[in-house]
User: What shape does this take?
Amino acid sequence: MNKQTYRLSELEPGQHGIIVSLTGSGEIHRRLLDMGVIKGALITLEKIAPLGDPIDIYIKGFHLSLRKKEADSVIVSICAPEENTCKCRRRGLGLKHKWGRLLRHRPAND
Amino acid sequence: MKKKITVAIVGNPNSGKTSIFNNLVGARQHVGNWPGVTVEKKEGTLIYKGSNILFVDLPGTYSLTAYSQEELVTRNFIIENKPDIVLNIVDGTNIERNLYLTTQLIEMEVPLVIAINMWDEVLQKGIKIDTALLGQLLGIPVIPTSAVKNTGIKELINIINDISHADNYSLAQKLDYQTDLEEELDKLTNVLGQDQYLKDNYPARWLAIKLIEQDQEVYKLVHDRAVWIQIDHTLDAGLRHLNRHFNQSPESIVSESRYAFVNGAIKETVQRPSFSRNTVTDKIDNLLLNRILGLPIFLFILWLVFQLTFSLGQVPMAWIESFFAFLRGFITNIMPETTLTSLLVDGVIAGVGGVLVFLPNIILLFLGIGFLEDSGYMARTAFLVDKIMHRFGLHGRSFIPMILGFGCSVPAIMCCRTLKNRADQLTTMLVIPFMSCGAKLPVYLLIIGAFFPKHLHGNILFGIYIFGIITALLAATLLKHSLFKGLSEPFVMELPPYRMPTLKNLLIRMWEKAWMYLKKAATIILVFSIILWFFSNYPSNPRLPERSPSQLSYSIAGRIGHFIEPAIRPLGFDWKMGIALTSGLAAKEVIVSTLGTIYSMEKEEGSPIPLQEALQNDPHFSPLTALSFLIFTLLYVPCIAATSVFHKESGSWQWTAFYIFFTTTTAYIMSILVYQGGRLLGF
Assistant: This one.
């Protein structure tokens, strides 16, 4: 299983993953939690702003933008396309993967 | 006798909360301020059957922490003012995150009613929400509504009315969180129950949850109680236990528990179609947030808004101008040439009329900005430019207010309300004056025209604007590193789906702003116009020839000019310029007319010389002086209208005093540097 962890700020547009941990504290930490950036949440990096910062992520059904500095404190495990056990595919979310293939819902034991 | 009940409206930003509020109370609303904070308070009433319902529209929030004034105002209103009912507006197309706030409201143990808003979009997207089942699970009424289509509102009012007349209304189900967390919450609740005051005034479980979340305000509240020693002991042990078990921060444990509950509820009651991720919003954003096209399109849209504002505004502006001209003529004809006439014509009409003439522009500008805000595009603009803004200690949302400053500081400062963080808001408001406002343009044109060769005119004008921008950015950086060190807000911002703004909401919002502008003109500006007129004309010495420079020197304005002359001589100015700049406190264009008066008074006989020539003939006024004068005009304290709006938006005399000090000092320093530096270089 390809379970490398990355900081959210290191992701590229189109990559999706699951939040593994949060390393922040104080107000930023709390704001992220309130917006649904919690352990176990699915996120997709949608876009990066033209000037390189902030980033736009898709989480819990909406778009959230944050600066890379804030995104540094979010640790994510990226889903690779070959993984049959990838939760995103099991949930049948039909996410467009960065290699361009549309992931369709398949039963886990396929 | 109608029963009076209070209903607090709480919900996420972009949930359509304000639309629902507008639908419930229409124009019967009143906007004020929460005491002691700069948070807007909106109230409105509805009389229905046996009830007189007061709706309080609380600020849109995602959560109820102690980190922002808006959250504190909201939760304090609920906990302390104890409204009869809390109406929670939930965006049905974004239900997961919206219900997070709902769980916090349930924790507060208040009578709750939920409105699943944007029901029309929910149906259109094919989302199925079983509102009855959801209501059962939570133990509270859940009503589908659509503010846009005006559905569900009647049912909402009926439920509110019924509940208010019911004798015993059961509160929502208690939400069960993770086992270990529940254990610690129980222990804390028991200890808290020992304090009678706390028990009577606050829900114990809510206090316990807040303590685990290390909420500063609740800490302060509980810290002074005798029972604190026990609480501290239990809390300390509890936090260590939780940390060992979960190995993450206590706030994240609580947040996860809330979301776990929300997830469970949604699993049973909400069915989403396999998400088509390429929604209309996504398609539009592919263009508007495009890496290459995004910024140019943004600049184009800004330009478009300004163009529309000024071209559409021309027509009503001309009407208002001619109205005041007519009024002026009428009064001069009807009334004998007395002091009162002069007061009315030169004082009141000149002052107030000068400001009112901009009302159409201001209204159109607010309509345009309101449209951008309600449609969802405003958030995108902050997203696009945040990197640059942040580099200079500002926020992505500071960009639009600063651009507005090129037109007029008044709407620009009012627009700073979108900056939720106080430090960001104050920083932006403080540097807006450096963005050269439209009223200063006549001054530049006059002075540049008089003292510089034709081929340099465009460049110098452009240079002044750029100088202003640079000063603004540097000043913001300075402020961020000194006064506001470390106080800026993290940039965590939702990009809401694009929605078509409703005319009703736009007009209501625009009316609020226009009314405020009118009130300002009618009061403060009127008073100041009269004062300034008085200063320029009194005292008058009947032995001196009328309208002469010696007469001017005799008046209060003249004396002020002479008095400050020593202070402004290092800048290259004399008493005449001193008077002109002082008159600029009323409005910047007045500088031109004051200079006109001063120099026309100079020529006692013969035909009047054009002002530019008169300036050139003044031995004291050199191109270097002119440059220094331009810079001072650019930077020093803005007109009384802008200052009073600053005071209203900042809510503080100290900050207003600082505003005046900061701008004037910057102007003074810059002018000295330019003038003395120029002298040293031999100009």
